[in-house]
Q: What sequence folds into this?
């Protein structure tokens, strides 16, 4: 591949392994790399016929599945910019996403017809999208897009800093922001990950008979898109499903015998707490990213299945920054609890509140030089704070040790200021997860007249625990105080049936109403 258009990744696979299956669906359908490229070419023609050109944004409000792969690469072929929107959004959330990103065309799944009927989005052209080759009639008054035919369409040249996609952050606090990412920056990130994973940043390094990768995260999420593009970059096929589920995962594992996985911590949680055993035989490792994974959860998984968990640190805005590989583990370089070694080629600094770079061992904000993002398209002020002079300010607090290993402390915005002390929710959560009757936990800061804020723990309890809520709450507070400084211990425990998750599957940290009751200390 000589250019920077992301569509050239697929075109390269169509040339060097065109007859190899490149895409699989849950229902048994599959397509070779050549077929994927040709159908994407048909999509490119359909988009062009609908008036879409280079630089135009195209909203994709589609139920997760293999069809999105055709639309992503079809848009990239003509230099258009996909705006990937969660199909779980309601009419109001969809309208907000459209207003933030101003797409020239919105492609909406026919299976979300009830949302289209309630949608109020004046000024945007909407075309409904059904199964390939099935035109059907209009949905909610919107004519269908005719697609599914095959055509050879070469990707147009694009500049490295050209906008490639608009992704909504899967952030755990506040409302999602629309992040603009670039073709060149995405390729930089893929090469970096390929280098540390396979030893080379050359494309097509995987054997043509390598097993496909499961794209466990949705394709509206940066993790899902990067997993798809990484699979194609190294030359593996991809299995795309509608959504995660333990039974669905087990069926696909038996069918494809995957040798690696990329999961969110919440997926590991569901796997660990499932009654059935999953067929992890032959799986070399599981990569976990998107959110910190607790020691207890990691240990429970590794003890049950004998498969090591590797971690990767990065974000939609910054790309891949640090992590551990299987080679690191074998070489004895792994440091438990860390985010990982900073990847070769990553320029990273730890900065204080005045923007000064700090020496090893001192805590500050993690700042990375990156050309991946052009900022937030919907928030100029936040965008200016995010990217300054080519450096992305992650909002994460951490430090780098003398061996170049990155350690995370917490999120700048999640920090709780309790009586003048800084309290990081993740530290409390890791301690409480060690308790035998805690299934999961989230810690939030709540307003307090005396201390400013207090840490409050929302706990999913083990239903078999022989204690009342009040008794268990008292025990958990005492448990934390035995293991943490007094000011860090939660002042109150509230029990919830489950923890709220974002559309991408992360544990949400959005504040919830402060109910009365529960022990306060």
A:
């Amino acid at each position: 591949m000589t250019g920077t258009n992301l569509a050239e990744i697929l075109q390269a696979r169509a040339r060097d392994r065109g007859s190899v299956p490149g895409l699989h669906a849950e229902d048994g359908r599959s397509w070779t790399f050549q077929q994927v490229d040709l159908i994407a070419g048909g999509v490119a023609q359909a988009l062009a016929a609908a008036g879409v050109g280079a630089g135009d944004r195209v909203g994709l409000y589609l139920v997760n599945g293999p069809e999105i792969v055709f639309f992503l690469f079809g848009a990239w072929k003509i230099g258009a910019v996909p705006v990937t929107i969660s199909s779980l959004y309601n009419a109001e959330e969809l309208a907000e996403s459209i207003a933030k990103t101003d797409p020239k065309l919105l492609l909406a799944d026919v299976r979300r017809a009830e949302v289209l009927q309630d949608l109020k989005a004046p000024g945007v052209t909407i075309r409904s999208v059904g199964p390939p080759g099935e035109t059907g009639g209009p949905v909610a008054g919107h004519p269908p897009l005719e697609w599914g035919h095959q055509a050879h369409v070469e990707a147009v040249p694009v500049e490295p800093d050209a906008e490639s996609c608009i992704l909504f952050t899967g952030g755990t606090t506040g409302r999602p922001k629309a992040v603009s990412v670039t073709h060149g920056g995405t390729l930089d990130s893929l090469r970096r990950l390929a280098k540390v994973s396979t030893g080379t940043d050359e494309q097509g390094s995987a054997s043509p008979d390598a097993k496909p990768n499961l794209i466990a995260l949705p394709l509206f999420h940066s993790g899902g898109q990067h997993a798809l593009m990484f699979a194609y970059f190294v030359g593996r096929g991809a299995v795309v499903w509608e959504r995660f589920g333990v039974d669905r995962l087990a069926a696909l594992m038996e069918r494809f015998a995957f040798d690696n996985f990329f999961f969110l911590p919440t997926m590991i949680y569901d796997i660990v707490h499932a009654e059935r055993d999953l067929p992890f035989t032959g799986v070399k490792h599981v990569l976990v990213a998107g959110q910190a994974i607790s020691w207890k959860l990691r240990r429970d998984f590794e003890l049950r299945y004998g498969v090591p968990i590797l971690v990767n640190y990065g974000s939609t805005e910054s790309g891949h920054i640090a992590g551990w590989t299987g080679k690191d583990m074998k070489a004895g370089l792994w440091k438990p609890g860390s985010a990982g070694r900073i990847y070769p080629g990553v320029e990273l600094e730890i900065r204080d509140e005045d923007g000064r770079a700090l020496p090893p061992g001192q805590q500050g904000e993690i700042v990375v030089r990156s050309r991946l993002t052009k900022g937030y398209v919907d928030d100029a002020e936040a965008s200016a704070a995010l990217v300054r002079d080519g450096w992305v300010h992650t909002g994460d607090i951490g430090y780098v040790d003398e061996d170049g290993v990155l350690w995370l402390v917490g999120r700048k915005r999640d920090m709780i200021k309790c009586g003048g002390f800084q309290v990081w929710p993740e530290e409390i959560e890791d301690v409480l997860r060690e308790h035998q009757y805690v299934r999961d936990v989230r810690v939030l800061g709540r307003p307090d007249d005396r201390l400013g804020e207090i840490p409050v723990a929302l706990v999913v309890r083990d239903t078999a625990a022989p204690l009342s809520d009040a008794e268990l709450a008292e025990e958990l507070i005492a448990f934390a105080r035995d293991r943490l400084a007094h000011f860090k211990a939660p002042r109150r425990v509230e029990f919830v049936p489950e923890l709220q998750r974002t559309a991408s599957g992360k544990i949400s940290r959005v504040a919830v109403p402060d109910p009365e009751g529960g022990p306060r200390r």
Summary: Residues 366 and 394 are 6 Å apart (CA to CA). The first helix runs from residue 7 to 16. Residues 416-495 form a domain with the GMP Synthetase; Chain A, domain 3 fold (CATH 3.30.300.30).
